[in-house]
Specification:
It is a single chain. By secondary structure, the chain is α/β, with parallel strands linked by helices. It has eleven helices and eight strands. An eight-stranded parallel sheet has the order 6-5-4-3-2-1-8-7. Strand 5, helix 8 and strand 6 form a beta-alpha-beta unit. The two termini are 33 Å apart.
Length: 358
């Protein structure tokens, strides 16, 4: 399932931001030549060498620094040499916890996350039919994911691995999507609250002394929330250790700000051992104005405290050239090290002209 189709079905996109204080002086006014542009380039499995080459040449001519390329090893064996020949960084775009239709995973139905209602996401898909989430607490799931990321990282010439859907299912959707699903999510609903499988519950009970299902309202228990933040964090950091040992970089596309990411998808990304990060500050998802691009970027930069670069990610669907021009302005004012656009196919000739001016 292509990410664009997911986004269309979700209504707009997933990601957003929060308000933030000031940003480090060292990051406050990046020079033009250090402001890097990135683009997601999907549909790798169905793309010819000529198509890859044409798209990479176009991005290079617009001054892009790097690409986040879809497809498995077969596609990467074509795209990586082409990107390298043009001086583009290329990172393999990999889905992590949401694995719709994956035959290898589906051979192990016990691997899938279980809702507070007791339903496996393999059998009862939350929100949309291709939401099939694995449980990050199971050692066998972690081993399988890490092995897969190592396999991708072994592609010769690859710059790094870029993680996507590295989180739990949205326990609460961004505010701009509630009407799409006729929901008012002012609290955590059991059918969207994961994971309550036997592994998670028994492991948490051994650490805390109680089963989360024994609580009157598990959503209010801070230790139970922290357990799930840590489950994802531990997995990411395991991947990081292996990828870094192979002399590859590791990055991730994450929800807009650390505060929102924790609240909506159990994602404590400011604690991850990444080389850089792409917060998806898709302001329309959060029913916010475009100014959210700046405040969300600042919050992420403050949380990272100068430890790694941050590239603000933006969704180009329905964006005018003026919107893009404003995105660039606000991202630079906030102090980010660059912008990442989802996705290549949405870079119209009009937007191309704006990007050429950067």
């Amino acid at each position: 399932m292509k990410k664009r189709q997911f986004i269309k079905n979700m209504g707009l996109v997933t990601g957003a931001a929060m308000i933030a204080p000031s940003v480090l002086t060292s990051c406050s006014s990046p020079e033009v030549d250090s402001f890097k542009l990135w683009a997601w380039v999907g549909n790798g499995a169905n793309k010819t060498k000529d198509e890859w080459e044409a798209q990479f040449n176009r991005l290079k001519s617009l001054g892009f620094h790097g690409v986040l390329a879809g497809g498995g090893k077969e596609a990467l064996n074509i795209s990586v040499p082409l990107a390298n020949s043009l001086g583009l960084e290329i990172h393999s775009w990999q889905w992590v916890m949401n694995r719709p239709g994956n035959e290898e995973a589906q051979a192990h139905p016990e691997w899938y996350a279980v809702s507070r209602e007791g339903n496996s996401s393999l059998d009862v898909n939350p929100y949309v039919g291709y939401y099939q989430w694995l449980c990050p607490s199971k050692p066998e799931v972690q081993d399988w994911i890490v092995k897969g990321m190592k396999n991708i990282a072994s592609v010769e010439g690859l710059s790094g691995v870029q993680l996507d859907y590295v989180r739990y299912c949205d326990v609460i959707l961004p505010r701009g999507l509630w009407e799409k699903y006729d929901l008012v999510q002012d609290h955590e609903m059991p059918q969207f609250d994961f994971c309550y499988c036997n592994t998670c519950r028994s492991k948490f009970k051994s650490e805390s002394g109680y089963d989360p299902l024994e609580l009157e309202d598990p959503s209010q228990d801070e230790a139970w929330r922290q357990f799930r933040y840590d489950s994802i964090t531990n997995l990411v950091n395991r991947i990081a250790d292996e990828v870094h040992a192979m002399d590859r970089q590791l990055s991730a596309s994450v929800f807009a700000t650390p505060k929102l990411a924790r609240k909506l998808v159990r994602q404590a990304w400011d604690e991850w051992n990444l080389d850089f990060v792409f917060p998806m500050i898709y302001y329309q998802f959060y029913d916010e104005s475009i100014e959210f691009v700046k405040s969300g970027t600042q919050e992420g930069l403050d949380a990272l405290n100068g430890t790694k670069p941050l590239y603000t990610a933006q969704y180009l669907h329905d964006k005018t050239p003026q919107d893009v021009r404003e995105m660039v302005k606000l991202t630079k004012e906030a102090g980010a090290q660059g912008l990442a656009f989802y996705d290549y196919g949405l870079i119209t000739p009009e937007i191309e002209q704006v990007l050429a001016e950067i």
